[in-house]
Amino acid sequence: MRRLQAFVFLAILFCLTGTRPLTQAVLTKSAAQSQNMSVTERAYQDREILYELQSPESHAFRITHDYTVRKVGEKYYFNVVRAGSHVTDPASVDLDTGEKLKWEIINGKQAVERKLPVGETLKDDSEIVVTYLSRALAPGTTNRIRLMETYADPKSYYTDGEELVWDRSFGRLRNTVVLPLGWYLTTPDDILVYFRARRRSRSAKN
Predict the structure, then answer these.
(1) Separation CA 28–CA 45 (nearest Å)
(2) Of 204, 197, 205, 200, whose CA–CA distance to 159 is shortest?
(3) What's residue 117's pLDDT?
(4) Mean pLDDT across 60-65
(5) Residue spans per domain, the chain
(6) For residue 43, what pLDDT is reported?
(7) What is the CATH number of domain 48-205?
(8) Averaged over 26-38, what is the pLDDT?
(9) What's the pTM?
(10) Are the CB atoms for 124 and 180 separated by under 8 Å?
């Protein structure tokens, strides 16, 4: 009986309210202002980097990482190569437009002479990859770019007998290292800056 009463009550309530025109929503001044506010922030992708190890004999590894340009008026992105490494074959792309970006490799002396705003102390023989942005960064905007470079560093990537050794500190929060074809991990380090790998035997591949 109580269920029937409750049902009748809800039916009457629906009849009283369901046929009435809905109250129109009125946009308040504060809500209108917040609707017109432009979004000035963007998710940054500066935490990850990919290392693709080439053949151990080359001591070379390919690096791929993204960067979000934030500084108003910025025209360049500078990647100062770590001392002891040698950079070749850079490539840059504007991820917002897909446009391939111009780049050049210069040394620290050239950067100082050209008064480029690298933003750190340089030695004359420091290697710098300069990426030219497709446009100067406007206020309230960002520009995401992707950079790819091949480094060679015999002190951090080499073979010790039959083992491959990677001994290099990382500068980003998330780092992915891809071993050369035919190698497997043997001694990973807890903080992933040092590891050894061994070449797979023919029988292990089959």
Answers:
(1) 36
(2) 197
(3) 95
(4) 97
(5) 48-205
(6) 57
(7) 2.60.40
(8) 49
(9) 0.71
(10) no
